Amino acid sequence: MKIALAQLNYHVGNFESNTNKIIQHIREAKQNGADLVVFAELCVCGYPARDFLEFNEFITLCDEAAKTIATECHDIACIIGLPTPNNNPEGKDLNNSAYFIENGTVKAVVNKALLPNYDIFDEYRYFEPSTQFSCIDFKGKRIALTICEDLWNTIENPLYITRPMDTLIKQKPDVMINIAASPFAYNHDEERIEILKDNAIRYNLPLFYVNHVGAQTELIFDGGSLIFDNTGVLLDELPYFKEALTYYTLNDDASVSFEHASTIKAAHQSDIEQIHEGLILGIKDYFYKSGFKQAILGLSGGIDSAVVCALAAEALGPENVMAVLLPSRFSSDHSIKDAEDLVKNLGCKSETVAIAKITESFESALSPQFKNLPFNIAEENLQSRSRAVVLMAMCNKFGYILLNTSNKSEAAVGYGTLYGDMCGGISVIGDVFKTQVFELAREINKDREIIPENTIVKPPSAELRPDQKDTDSLPEYDILDAILYEYILNRRSSAEIIKLGFEEAVVRKVLRLVNISEHKRYQTPPILRVSPKAFGMGRRMPIVGKYLS
Amino acid sequence: MKIALAQLNYHVGNFESNTNKIIQHIREAKQNGADLVVFAELCVCGYPARDFLEFNEFITLCDEAAKTIATECHDIACIIGLPTPNNNPEGKDLNNSAYFIENGTVKAVVNKALLPNYDIFDEYRYFEPSTQFSCIDFKGKRIALTICEDLWNTIENPLYITRPMDTLIKQKPDVMINIAASPFAYNHDEERIEILKDNAIRYNLPLFYVNHVGAQTELIFDGGSLIFDNTGVLLDELPYFKEALTYYTLNDDASVSFEHASTIKAAHQSDIEQIHEGLILGIKDYFYKSGFKQAILGLSGGIDSAVVCALAAEALGPENVMAVLLPSRFSSDHSIKDAEDLVKNLGCKSETVAIAKITESFESALSPQFKNLPFNIAEENLQSRSRAVVLMAMCNKFGYILLNTSNKSEAAVGYGTLYGDMCGGISVIGDVFKTQVFELAREINKDREIIPENTIVKPPSAELRPDQKDTDSLPEYDILDAILYEYILNRRSSAEIIKLGFEEAVVRKVLRLVNISEHKRYQTPPILRVSPKAFGMGRRMPIVGKYLS
After folding, report:
1. Helix (H) or strand (E) holding A357
2. Which residues bind ATP (chains A, B) (predicted)?
3. Is B410 annotated as ligand-binding?
4. Which of A490-504 are b and which e, b meaning 16 or more Cβ less than 10 Å from the residue's Cβ?
């Protein structure tokens, strides 16, 4: 049996483009002699569809798309994913389903049993878990078809009380197929390989796994679909961050063969290489899928905006990136020069709008209220907010989308101005710690100097008052990021973090800063997610709560 | 058996204050001869604790608080709610539990079975549902203790496939007790009474129901705890939006008697009266629980900011409200006068900061870029954003929290400026449609004219260009709100809404405006929730998705 795996970039709610893409790949697979072509979980509507799923019209359109797709399935079978109404009057309205379509009709329906509802996942919000499991017979082979999380209930750390394959294996299947929507995080590819390999070994079956690729607002899907033999050997791996259609033959002895050269990488990409590729895809799809072309950002001469500018130029083309220098009276000469050098290196567009007179107009308008009170955070924020207003005015006038340039360390400790540098349509590096931003700059400069060396080596500064340095108010970034990692990703208490060897006063200060910044993060743009715990939908903290640390 | 019901205002994560409050009420109930005092669901940690629940330290602190509370339970028993570790190694880490504490020790643990995971609820994110149900014997009575949603699985529309009381009833209980965390919406009190009454009738048992009161950021809990006899007659109702401790005797013939006058209202409050009280509590608790006292807002002379200002003055005291007039060249004389009249009527503080020179400084700084392009939304937004920067500067200088004054109709169609009038720490009327804002103004003026009549009767205008009226770009508010209601609350498609009799072009325009504003709403402050479907956590729409309507 010849099986085609289609790893594609869908668009949530775009039935026309998703359906066309699926049909086009069915046709191509048929031309290439495939018996079966496998698409990803919920491919018909895109993932995550969120509360679109609560609209009856949306479910009807999924059904209609499936019917259109079914008419293409002659002399080839296909597996697609879509939400379907739950036939049981008890329980939630929907199932997360896979259709096995053959001879123009739906031959079998498989419903997902294990519904992830942690981190960014909300599947139990919409779907009723399945409790019945049947294999599908096709061309003399018996297929155990499951959906994503259904294979993820590990023996060591079982998140659910059932395991669908434990039922399916009793029906003596010949092969496992798993369709997935497994979002990217820099550590996720290895975890995915490990867990799927365990399944192949445990059930002694070859395994075909098909994932999404492409970004849906903040969620990036990295592809990397996988093929294992029945001993758990990884036979092939589809490309990361790219669409692909590949073919495999499932032989009668349960072995899997294929004609193309296996694309398994000898060494996996480093975290930073993955983050780099992921962010490029994230920017590209955010603009493409929202119908915009042109990005704008404020360029300070610092490393964060430099990295975002370089990523945007790579993703959208330098001709579609407008970098705006917004010097104030505190901007240093080297900052302006560094920013100009970057613009030159990238070949992107640039403008300069000085903000000194703007902040003066605010200070003058507010002088009856502020009287002779000393310069403080109010005046610092005036600069940051004046810049944001300039950038947003340019967005409104010319149709740009503003890129947010805050990094994860800043976002964590609230080292940023709400309605100032925290503005933007999408946050590009809001899930990248400052120490990783430096690595990313080096990665971007791998082949030639794009980001000026001075931008990378100078001490970070917000330049909102004379001679300000980030380290005036924050610990060194390697210490800060290590503490943040323990608190945010590992959810350790202050006592536990102190026990790891960090200075008590520093730990308490950092955790306090994180806690009192929840209200700021609530109002920030969506953040491209590259880590297992990003700010946004995946981390839901109270705002008006009493924090412990 | 004498039962005390404690309907209290907790604070998420504030173990010290929650524990003290619980202990103080145990003591008071004991002094008044109660055998048992019942507190609300998850009262120990507050509700909703969100991802606090993912911190081990948080769960440990819950356990320690319960131990402290237990030491008070001699000669009186109590029921408290808290998260506890799931003893089963399979499934999620926690249970949503109720402790029955007697003689200083936990005599019984009940775990919640039906975990709401719709709208604002995320309980399946944290908790494993219970599948085992046992009654609790106490002083010759058998108690069927359940937690909130456990009684909410209706016969007509069953959201879950089990019903805990169907198991518990077989053990022949004498009484039902349900502890809850059931947030306010203007239609929710009637629904609650109906569903609980059905339970009393179906199981032929008296029912004691204890709810939270108080607000946790955007969620308001209205109290209104309930007592039914075994025929479903509502015997008593605790006050709405207030703390209370009341006593009942469960007699041997299963009847319930009590000494105080029943506080059931002859007629329930109107929606607007409830919204009014709910918003007052929401503002109060937002400030009190976050440790702030002083609110600031921009006063335009229009009805939205007038209503918010009046509510804030009522909630915080007029001396804690700073109203700032921010006239531009497009502000009409009557607007300034209306704003001044309101300030006078309320007795709140006020300042005037003219923004004309500020917007001119932006226009001048941007003139090399904008050249002679015509005045458009860029310049309109400059005004709104300049006002926000002034207000935020005053927040930074003086420690105010900015109140957002957008209404739900505006928020829905994106008739507001991101980083402009959409700023604020909390949105007061973001869940109140414009037509309801008018009703709210009348309600506020019930006893005397607080909001100037002219503010209520003049045609709404954003005053961002000469002679602008809201109806220049939007349909009349009664039409707009009716369409929004069908789309947002009833999730109807454009075709369905048109079929209800609305003009096709208008429906398409409104729905399109809602859809293209998702990115704006993503970055708005938390919105005090008063309806069954508010923007925020309860409505999770894709941003970069293709919308249907």
Report:
1. helix A356-365
2. 298-305, 405
3. yes
4. ebbbbebbbeeebee
Concerning whether B112 is annotated as a catalytic residue, the answer is yes
Q: Who contacts B396 (Cβ-Cβ below 8 Å, separation ≥6)?
A: A376, A377, A378, A381
Which residues make beta-bridge pairs with A114?
A: none
Q: Which of B11, B76, B43, B96 is nearest to B211 (CA)?
A: B43
- A148 catalytic? Reply is yes
Distances (CA, A) of B159 to A122, A462, A506, B113, B120: 16, 52, 48, 12, 16
Q: How far apart are the C-alpha atoms of B26 and B23, rounded to whole Å?
A: 5
Is A2-265's fold the same as A273-468's?
no
- CB-based burial label for B289 (10 Å; 0-12, 13-18, 19+): buried
Task: Domain B2-260: state its class.
Answer: alpha beta
| CA neighbor of B231 nearest in space, from B260, B258, B253 | B253
Question: Across chain A, what does the average pLDDT equal?
Answer: 96
- Say how far apart CA A382 and CA B523 lie, in whole Å: 20
Q: What is the pLDDT of residues A500-522, one digit of tens each?
A: 999 999 999 999 999 999 999 99
One of 3.40.50.150, 3.30.465.10, 1.10.357.20, 3.60.110.10 is the CATH number of A2-265, namely 3.60.110.10
Whether A112 is catalytic is yes
Q: Is B396 left (phi over 0), alpha (psi -120 to 50) or beta?
A: alpha
Q: Which residues of B496-521 are buried (b: 16+ CB within 10 A; e: fewer)?
A: bbbeeebeeebbebbbebbbebbbbb
Interface test mutation site (partner B, options A546, A547, A548, A549, max chain B beta carbons within 10 A): A546
Query: Could you give the CA distance from residue A371 to residue B190 in angstroms, rounded to a whole number?
Result: 54
- B446/B276 Cα distance (integer angstroms): 12
Given this structure, which CATH class describes domain B273-465?
Answer: alpha beta
Separation in Å, CA B216 to CA B212, B221, B274, B275, B504: 11, 8, 17, 16, 40
pLDDT tens string B285-313: 999 999 999 999 999 999 999 999 999 99
Taking a C-beta distance cutoff of 8 angstroms, is the pair B452, B341 a contact?
Answer: yes
Domain A273-468 -> CATH class = alpha beta
Q: Please state, in angstroms and rounded to a whole number, the distance separating the CA atoms of residues A435 and B204.
A: 64
Asked whether the CA dihedral B68, B55, A524, B549 is positive or negative, the reply is: negative
> What type of residue is B530?
V
**What residue segments make up the domains of chain B, in order of their start?**
2-260, 273-465
The 3-state DSSP class for residue B349 equals strand
Contact A364 B357 (CB under 8 A): yes
Chain B residue with CA closest to A425: the answer is B519
| Residue B233, number of CB atoms within 10 A of its CB | 13
Sequence-distant (≥ 6) Cβ neighbours of residue B409 within 8 angstroms: B415, B433, B434, B435, B474, B477, B480, B481, B484
ipTM over cut 0.85: yes
**Partners of residue A377 in chain B, C-beta under 8 Å:** 396
Residue that has been written with the tokens 């609305």 in this structure: B502
DSSP code, position B171: G
A163: tokens are 């395991």
**pTM, two decimal places:** 0.97
Q: Which residues contact A154 (CB under 8 A, 6 or more apart)?
A: A195, A198
**What was the pLDDT predicted at B462?**
83
CA-based nearest residue to B488, from B426, B436, B536, B546: B536
Q: CB-based contact (8 Å) between A291 and chain B? A: no
The radius of gyration of chain B from alpha carbons, rounded to an integer in Å, stands at 26
Nearest to B13 among A357, A376, A545 (CB): A545
User: Is a pLDDT exceeding 70 seen at residue B434?
Assistant: yes
